[in-house]
Structures
1.
Amino acid sequence: MIEHNELDSTCGVSDDELTERFKEAIRIDNEIKRIKGTPIAGYDPKNKRAFLQYPDGRIEYVAG
């Protein structure tokens, strides 16, 4: 007999729907950070480096 817990199930939500919900949650979180004036973490695939973007538009690459 196979036992399932709540983490084994997506409650009937498709992978595409979960992806869309995740993207929307990130968008909302970034909007909240802009309003609060805190930096938003990002990644520049061209330079292959992580960065912080401040509400004034300034970007600082993370050392590492």
2.
Amino acid sequence: MITTAEILTRAKAAAPTLLTVSTEQKNQALEAMAFALLSQTDHILAENEKDMERARGHISDVMLDRLLLTKARIQGMADGILAVAKLPDPVGRILKETVRPDGLVIQKRAVPMGVIAIIYESRPNVTSDAAALCIKSGNGCVLRGGKEAFLSANAITQALQDGLSTAGLNPDLVQLIQDTTRQSSMELMTATGYVDLLIPRGGAGLIRACVENATVNCIETGTGICHVYVDKAADLDMALNIINNAKTSRPSVCNAEEVCVVHSAVAERFLPMLKTRLADERAAAGLTPVELKLDERAAQIIPGTPAGPQDFDTEFLDYILAVKVVDSVEEAISHISAHTTHHSEAIVTADRAAADLFVQTIDAAAVYVNSSTRFTDGGEFGLGCEMGISTQKLHARGPMGLEELTTYKYIIHGNGHVR
């Protein structure tokens, strides 16, 4: 088995080879990667089934869905790569140009980071998304997937490397760490001189470990305790549709709703509607009903599970929704601000003043008015796909696409200038 240190050495050696590759060559490589992914679908699905078999009984059904690959999902991964190929190349963009009074020309130009490492858990599609974004932005890519998805990620990586080779690029530009123990994660976190940027994608524990232990540059991403606040001026049918989508369309992802906050003026009408749609109707249709964890005021209106002290600070990633009743938009903002993970927050209201106050005062990467939080996604934002959702403020925030995977340097042109 190739060691993590050997992979890092290869990645550092390979990354500079992209600096002189044209946009056309990078796009051709991405197209070859997408083709290789599709041509090796049967092998990838066979490896994924092995992962699924090992994981059954050890992780929840919702998390199994994250792990599962199908022909349609692999087609979606290939489509994501091709979407990135069609995007403008961020490398070499002139961000700013200044001509000084003495004639000195100073350019601020976008350049690749170098080597980007990604630590992620049981979502095999991250493998191709990350690789595509890294190649287009001129970076080497070192992937460290979760042990539950190792065989799937390994098969995907091999296909992507085949595509790179077909296009005449170094296959070492995209590599998967073979060691799935915690030791390899620590090696990436402390790979000073080899890793220029580390991006963790996963649960709170993974992200905390990276932020606390990394000696390389690290982006804090994606724990999503996302709230939807139903204001007293909300269209209640609209609110119900938004919450149904935000909670049930894919509860295992970071942009799924975890908390519903409801104004007391509409709670008597809205909460029974909420229970009917999310619990009763889903159960009658043979779907998993959403468990409603209710604060004291909500529990006086509808039956459900009493909310515990941690339920408003939990990313459930399941068919569970915490519910709180408040008396004003200001109280809603106060509650959300106390429990937010700065990912995605939403207000449903026809009151422009309430919406404006919410947008101005909520500290999150994405703030929605009359829309589901499920749109916080690189593809939905027009980025092709994403490296993750940054919940910090420097240097990237929200869905991380091509631009967020570049840095910049100053290029100065003189004519014998001396100081």
3.
Amino acid sequence: MKNSIKTILLTLLVVLSAIVGTACSDNGNNNGNVTSPTHSEAPATDTESQAVTNITESSASPETTGEDIVGLWTEAKYSEDTELGKGAVTVKIKVVAEDKSVTFTVHTDKDTLGAALLETELVQGDESEYGLFIKFVNGIEADYDKDKAYWAISKNGEYLMTGADSTAIADGENYELTYTKG
């Protein structure tokens, strides 16, 4: 849907630019005066016609494949593997949302996963009596109240039975934060 809207707006911009260009050009007929173009004065170019055809085709059969992925990752702070922080302990954090993932190499002197994630601003969340409830990872929101989405934490493929702020970390460990709907 967002791509269709962008395509429509881009096409309108191209058409308007062509109309303004035609209206403002001096063909030697109007002594430089600007006239309002009519349909016969500003025929559509092949490029404009193709753009309109593309919009019509994409609007007629909207594809949902990938729209959620685009939607989730449009707010992401990082879209490529990235190194964050400074410190003696290095852990890898793979962020997975839909069919896309980004791996973060986090360097820290913190003792827990939650503290390292907060220190590098990779996550944001709320503190509760049960600890840190992660709502945002890499800028991507999981809103359980809205659509039952949450961030699942695993280590070496095994889901953790502890929260991020009570999970002790050691050099060389691998974690995953997975966007999950349940």
4.
Amino acid sequence: MDRIKIIGGNKLNGIIPISGAKNAALPLMIASLLTDDILTLENLPHLVDVELLIRILGNHGVDYSVNGRRERQDGNYFRTVHFHARHIVNTTAPYDLVAKMRASFWVIGSLLARMGEAEVSLPGGCAIGTRPVDFILDGLRALGTEINIENGYVRAKASKGLLGGQYTFPKVTVGGTHVMLMAASLARGDTVLHNAACEPEIVNLAECLNRMGANITGAGTPKIHISGVSSLSGARIKIIPDRIEIGTYAMAVAMTGGDVMLKGADPQLLDSVLQILRQMGVNIAENADGIRIQHDGNAIEPGDIETRPFPGFPTDLQAQFMGLMTRANGTSHITETIFENRFMHVQELVRLGARISLSGQTAIVEGVARLQGAQVMATDLRASVSLVIAGLSAGGETIINRVYHLDRGFECLEEKLSNCGADIKRVHG
């Protein structure tokens, strides 16, 4: 099993190109099921989750092709990929595929909208907490879907097609909003979604669906209106930059010190995070090329954050922020409001010398003068990269085990960091 080896202490200087957002790419790929024309996605990241979803879509009959050869530039794969669901050959998403990635459950909305039926395995548990699909199923029922759950599968039918309706999400859910946008696009009549997610990935999907011929207004606000159409055509769209990657590398520079241009980064995607980093003494400059991050490497000011849906502080950056706060000049408080079990990285950071205590859903982090390298284990995607951030500034050698989590969401991580002076490499076997 691969591991990552880091010798800490080097500052980061150079350019890091920002990849396409995984959390935008996955629903955009699933949208290809809605049309028998070609959907072209630019800036598709090269990630384990993306490749797995390509397999899952292939199970339903979606063909894909890469435009020309893959060109690697500045440590990044720039891919334009064409998805073509000319014929849906299978409306069942089996357990052995869905269990590997929860987002694959989202195919249920597109299959229902186009084929009038879907049989999708329940996704099961998740390391960072429960992510119930009840909101998705209730939303589809509001569009006239008949749903039965048998033997671990959701069997959904809308034999006469989906019908527009009103639905209020009991809690903001990005996945639920994605599914309802795709399903309602082909429903007869109007659909209004209340308490919808406002994330930039939602806006990216809505823009894509509108280019395909959908009629969606209000994306990016809590109230979205969808006027259903009879069919959708092909389209071409660029995947937005990955805001979690932007925040992760910005925090890495704040941790180690240095001067890095995050090429292609869009500051509007994570304004709340950049504001907090500025308050802590990090220099952040925005220009046409992206975002420039500068810090002298001295201890930064502590900070208190609470994870919230967009435009609040993202839960997917909570672990990275905690890694940064281990070296702050004082005590920080980090409250997790989205997932109930997203502090599994705490004990691994403690192995590096961090001082962290937990009180319910709040972590109290007392900054230390220095971290010390050690063997640690990644527990999930975002937790794993928090250990990378900590290891970059720790004295001596840090070995991170179970790094397959990283490959799910960070493209060319070691290469991007090593190009900026980090002593980091992957050890195979």
